[in-house]
Amino acid sequence: MTKKICLSLLSVLVLCALWQTVSTCINAPLLAPGLTDIVRALVDLCSTKDFFASLGATFLRCIVAFVIAALIGFLLGTAGGLSKSLAQFIAIPLWCIKATPVVALILLALFWLNSNNIPIFVACLIALPVITESVKAGICAVDKKLLETSHLYKLSSWQEVCIVRFPALLPFARQGLSTAYGLVWKAVAAGEVLSLPQKGMGTVLSLQQVHLQTAHVIATTIILVASGYVSQLLFTLLFTNIKIHSVHVPQRKTFETNNASSKDITTNLQRDGFSYTFTKESVTAIIAPSGAGKTTLLNALAQDQTNSNELVSFVFQEPRLFPTLTIEQNIFIAASAVLPQKKAYERTQHILDASGLRSVSNRLPEHVSGGERQRTSLARAFAYPAPLLLLDEAFQSQDIAHECMLLQELQTLLSEQKRTVILVTHDAREACVIADKVLVMQGFPLRTVQELQLLPKKKSAAKLYVSPDETIITAEETIHTLLLNSMNA
User: Fold this and answer.
1) Tens-place pLDDT, residues 367-421
2) Alpha helix (H) ranges present in 196-293?
3) Are the beta carbons of 426 and 394 closer than 8 angstroms?
4) Of the candidates 173, 207, 389, 456, which lies 20 to 30 Å from 232 by C-alpha distance?
5) What is the pLDDT of residue 76?
6) CA dihedral for 80, 81, 85, 88, sign (positive or negative)
7) How many Cβ atoms sit within 10 Å of the Cβ of residue 141?
8) What is the pLDDT of residue 75?
C-alpha cells in the first residue's frame, strides 16, 4: 500500500513538473498558467460561498441522476436477464442511446427541459445502458447448479434470491454501478456547461472561460476531478462491503420421516429404454463404467420425485454448496426447510460432530478443503429428512478415516430412519459394505448386467470397509469380474 501511494504521488509530481516546464517555456499565462497562478485560483475559489453552492448543486444532480438510472437499469437488466425476448426488445433502444453523442443529447434536451434538469436527464441516459447490461449479465451468470440445489432442498423464493441470485449479481452490479457513477459525474458537468443552470460547476466553468480565466478553469477542473474521485472511491468502498452473511430460514411444515418412505420407486429412461423399480427402504448400489449413464439415471429419479412433489436428497459429484453460507449454515438451511427450527438445529449439531466438520463449521466453503466441502454436501443430505437419498460418487475425495466415519454415519442414519438409498460408485467395497444389493450395469444403452443380493451385515460398515469378511471379498471379486467382462464384450 505504501509503495502504491508513493508511486501515485510521484506521478502527480512529474505531471506538475512537466506543466510548469511548459508554462515557463511558452511564457503565456492565458494558454498555460504556472502552478503558482493555479494555486492562487484554487484559494480564490475555495474562499467563496457561491462556489461551494455550485459544487453542491452539481453533486446533488449526480446523485439524483445516478439513483434514477440505477433504479431503471436494475428493472430493465433484471427483465432482460430473465427473458430473452425482453432482452432483445430493449437492445436496440439501449444501442441507440450508447451511439448518440453526448452533445447531441444535451442539445435535444434543450428543447424539452429547463436548464436545471437537462444535466440529470443526460446523465441518466448515459449511465442507463451500462447499468442495464451489467445487471443483465449478473442475472445470466447465476449458477444453474446452485439453483437446482436450492429447488431440491425447498428453499423459499426469498432465500433463493439472497443466497444464490444476489451473490452472482453483486460483482457485476458493483462494476457496472462504479463505471456508471464516473460517467454520470462527467455527463452532469458537460450538461451544465451547455445548459447553464443557475448553480452548477459547469456554469462556473463556462463563465470562467468567457472571462478568459484559464487558471480558474484549471483550478475548477482539478476540484471537479478530485471531488469525483473521492466520491467514487467512497461509493466503491460502500459496495465492496456489501455481503450476505446469513439468511433467516422461515419455519416450514414438519415432515414426519418415520412414515416418509411408503412405496417402491420406479424410473424410466426413455432415451435408453431402461426401466427399473428400486425397493423401498433399502440401499441399492450401482456400479458401471464411466459414461454409462449413472448420473443421468439419478437425475431422472430426482426429477421424477420433484415433479411428484416428493422430497429427495441428492449428493452430487461436486459439492454444490452455497458460497455465502458457512459450513454449518449450509447444513442447517436444508434441515430447517422441513423440520422445526429447534429440531433442525439439533440435527445440524449432531451431523457436524458425526462428519468431523465441527472445527470448520464457521468457515465459508472457499476456506475449507475439497474433501471437507464434499463431506458438507453429504452432511447436508443426511440432515435433510427426505425418503429418497441419492448419492453420486458421494465418498470421493475422502481419506480412509473420514470415509469410514461417513459410511458408519450413513449406516446409523438408516437404522434410525427408513430411507430408500441409491448409491452410484466405482468402489466395489464401498458398495458391498453399505448396500443391500448391487446392480452391475453397462451403458449404450443403459442396462443391468447382473443384480447381486447381499447378505445382512454382522459388523459395522466402517469395520467391514477396513477388514472385509469373506462375503464382502467374494462380492468384490464378482463385481470386478462382471465389469471386466462387460467392458470386453
Assistant:
1) 888 888 888 998 898 888 888 889 888 787 777 887 787 888 787 777 777 888 8
2) 201-210, 214-240
3) no
4) 207
5) 92
6) positive
7) 13
8) 93
Q: Write out residues in the chain with pLDDT < 50, as ranges.
A: 246-247, 249-262, 271
Extract the C-alpha cell encoding 335.
Answer: 434441515
At 382, the amino acid letter reads: F
Q: Report phi then psi at 134, rounded to 5.
A: -70, -40
- Separation in Å, CA 282 to CA 65, 438, 479: 63, 11, 20
β-strand pairing of 388-392 with 312-315: parallel
State the amino acid at position 299 in one-letter form: N
Report d(CA 294, CA 302) in Å as an integer. Answer: 13
Q: What is the DSSP letter of 388?
A: E
One-letter amino acid of 168? A
Residue 290 neighbours by CB under 8 Å, 6+ apart: 426
**pLDDT score at 263:** 57
Length of the chain: 489
The grid coordinates of residue 342 equal 429447534
Domains plus CATH for the chain? 30-240 (1.10.3720.10), 265-488 (3.40.50.300)
Region of residue 333 (left: phi > 0; alpha: psi -120 to 50; beta: else): alpha
The pLDDT value recorded for residue 12 is: 74
Q: What angle do CA 369, 370, 373 make, to 5 degrees?
A: 90
Residues 6+ apart with CB under 8 A from 322: 146, 149, 150, 163, 164, 329, 330, 333, 365
Q: In this structure, are residues 258 and 417 in contact, taking their beta carbons and an 8 Å threshold?
A: yes
Long-range contacts of 109-115 (CB under 8 A, 24+ apart): 109/191, 109/195, 110/194, 110/195, 115/195, 115/196, 115/197, 115/198
Q: Which helix (H) or strand (E) holds 392?
A: strand 388-392
Between CA 402 and CA 409 the distance in angstroms is 10
> How high is the pLDDT of residue 489?
58
E strand or H helix at 182, and its extent? helix 166-195
Rounded CA gap, 381 and 391, in Å? 9
Locate 261 and state its grid cell.
418412505
- Summarize pLDDT for 274-302 with one digit per residue, the tens: 677 887 888 888 888 877 778 888 888 88
The pLDDT value recorded for residue 267 is 57
Q: What is the pTM of this model?
A: 0.74
Name the helix (H) or strand (E) containing 437. strand 437-442
Residue 124 gets which letter from DSSP?
H
Q: Between the CA of residue 429 and those of 31, 400, 466, 472, what are the distances in Å?
A: 86, 12, 10, 7
Cell of 295: 448420473
- Determine the number of helices (DSSP H) and then strands (DSSP E) in the chain: 19, 8
* DSSP 8-state assignment for residue 170: H
